[in-house]
Amino acid sequence: MTGMDGRLDFEIEDELIKVPEVNKKRKKVIGLDELLTDFYKEQSERVEKEAKRKKERKKKSYEYDDFDRKEAALTRLVEKCHDQMKTLGDDEEFSVWGMQLFGSQKEFPPLHFPELDSCNLLRSFMDNKLNCMVELTADKGDIFLEGLLTNGWLSKLVFLCGHIEKSVSIWVFNTMLYSSKEELQTSACNLWRVILSSRKEADQFAVKIDWFPEYMHLRRALKIYGFLFNFSPTSAPMKIDSSCGGPPQNIRAWIKFVTACCRIRSKISIFSAVEAEEIAQVIICLFLDRLFEGLLVLLDDCMQAVISYFTDQEWSSSCENIAKYIACRVSKDFNCIQAAECISKVNSRSKQLRSEVAYQSLLLCFDGVTNGEEILRSVIAINVKDKKCDLFKMYIYLILTENWLLSDDSTLEEKPVICEMFRLYLKNCSCLISGADMRSFASKIRHRAAYLMQFSFHK
Amino acid sequence: MKNPSSSGGKSYREGFEANLLAILDACEAKETQDTHDDRLAFLDAVRTASVVPEHGTRPTYKIFEAVFHILRLGKSLELIMASYQLLIELEKRFPRVYLPSEDKFKSSSVTPSELVVVKEAWTPFIFSMEGNVSTVGEAADRQPGELLDSSSFHLLIEELAEMLTEANFQATGVKNMLLLQYLVYVLEGDFLPRNATMKWNVQRESLLNMLLGSRKINYKNLMKDCLHFICQLSQLHVQLNTRLELKDSSETGTSLSNCHTALLIALLEVGTNTCVSMEKFLAMAMELDMSRKKADNEGYTTRADGVRTPLVEIILDELTYSVDTVPLFLQVFNDPKWKLETVVQYLWKYIAKPVRTRRSNSSTHDATFSGALKCFSNNTSTKSIIKKIGPDTVQLLLAHGFQAQLSEGYREDNTAGQAQGKAGNLVDLCKDVITAFDSMRSTHEHMEILSIGKEALFTAATIISVENSSD
Predict the structure, then answer these.
(1) For A401-456, what is each residue's pLDDT tens digit?
(2) Domain of life here (chain B) (predicted)?
(3) Are the beta carbons of B154 and B226 closer than 8 angstroms?
(4) What ipTM did this prediction achieve?
(5) What CA–CA distance (Å, rounded) separates A212 from A205?
(6) Chain A, 96-135: which have a CB under 8 Å from a chain B CB?
(7) Quick one: how far is CA B280 from the chain centroid?
């Protein structure tokens, strides 16, 4: 029973140290790097000695019988757990991402229905003898057109005629962005998407399209929805309350439409490279607003579409521009992690962008740092054992570094120096923080670093 | 059938699995921010290991189950969405059934030997049907509550319908809708390649057939519930809007008062997609019916296959009983092939079949949409049809049938060579639609033409004038 006190101090190490000796199979599973093992052995021996000394002191001073000792140990354990729970609870205020990116909506522009004179589709029918049944009149043109759109006739007509005239396409576009009726938004968006994705030959639409929207139209809509183009890291943090503010539902159609536009560059370039950069930035921002949590799939699609929109020549500079913009705007807490991690690693470009966003954020974390080696030198120099060390920041650095160096397999292969420094950094994080360290984020850093060691250097 | 053995050393896979699952360790006890983060980290690690690399490994059963577990238990939108997305990605990346090198052989008929079935692949379904011993064996060491059988699938539909009826919208509703979408996605991935083989012994082993054929459920009730659910779901936005307006006008708490914007945005988006999934589910069930009928005619079915009422018939019965459902169903169910089939069968149920035609033309009985339209050319039959079906429903059927026929016709239009003949048919079709409306109007002078009828007439007239001017 006397071993109880000692065990409590390094309960977690215990398991880890034993692994390589007890079971070779398990070493593969949770065993750490050999370097680590040596270090732990050394450390554990020291701790054990200390514990023994303590025990002996205790033996002399207290004359508890066995039962009392058990109870005391148990009480201490409970108290410790309680404290730990408390600190975990404290973490919560830091450990949530979320930014408020939408202010109040501006007034929607009125939906101009195409004048009958300018709309061939409706005008040509007016003289038809069938109009005695249809009863289409000049003042009811708008309602009739809405019916054609929501009931699917308009898309049939567009494809059978092989043509969509300017007045109709503008009306459908505006309906998509500014109608408050869900069915109209959805049908309008679907119609545009079907038209844009249609193809006759590789570089041709199946339909003659008289009018294409430009980026300024889309940007204007976003502004009207209340999107804060000029937000900064000091913006108030997002609070989820019961008020039904935020963007209008049309934002879903906006995202889908932009996605469709990005996918057709072989037929038409709707956006310039700079405009596409802004779209990518907007999409990353939307990922940061918790209001969009339910649109993960849509945003992900859009992100991938924008990334693949750029030509190879444009990409490397655009990638950097996007990352720089995001790094400047997003606060260095869980938000900047979310900003990097929202870009899912699908292809080399998305991996590159994710890595770049993390890299640019790290550059801004340290004064006067200009390259990767300096970043790593700065993080290695942080003394995690120091009581004043801000472990929350340390955790952010660790995750950012992970995203910077591990998003793309090639990053480390090309840079042996960085690779060695990274290994040292991970070793610092996993070894210098003891398992008994009860500071917030201590165990998180330790576990993450150990996990990364295992996965990135033991493939 | 080929059955590729799992790749990768066993010990490596075990270690890999343990490492991933270690992230989740101690997750189960309490719901804190930490467990939430751990689950997200776990999902990300699975993605990094399986989806991201070019030659990723198929996750083990335990990992699949852990991901599925997160979706089923998920209370936060973030976790629900992330686990759903990962499951779909895994499904795309590691299909259970597929046709190898689809690009190489573009032949239309596929022999069953070419179909690859990964038998050891995990599925969210568990069917303990007779004649399916392997599944039963595996079932023993699975947690029963997690995986779905036919009755839990039915229960899911019922729960969702209840949510709509009671207008009680929570994150659980989003979760259940995503779960349903995922299940339909799994059914689809399994059914489509199997159905393409045109061999009943392959088709009958599809998850869909096992789901629908299970004795644990009442098949007819399930299908009726699906029908009503999809109709209800198509009105979700109306429901949410009225709730919102209610909330705006009166301060008294409605069930939406605690529904914040994020949930509202998610509900509308997920609701729309769930409608599409349900539509696919119904269309697949109809395809299965057709394959089954064909197999039946050719004598490939056995007693074990049992008897099922074709879904189209069940839907027709339901539509006849509750006429209010007709416009909703026709609006939401947009699969052109099966929509057309439903409309045509509905019409022909009430059209007196001309005996003379059948005798003179015994080989083909013209039970098509055009055939139905022709019956409106004389006043007596028009009168009798309107009397039986009702003036509004007739218009709905004709308009939707016309639209579905346009979609079906347009598809065929794309095949080269037939363009000339098709254009002729297109104009004829439009003319027949106009004649039918004309005839209804002349027999029922006070008949009000519905807006969808007007739109159909407008479309028909416009197509005729465009076709004429281009000639």
Answers:
(1) 999 999 888 888 888 899 999 999 999 999 888 888 888 888 889 988 998 888 77
(2) Eukaryota
(3) no
(4) 0.87
(5) 12
(6) 96, 121, 124-125, 128, 130, 133-135
(7) 2
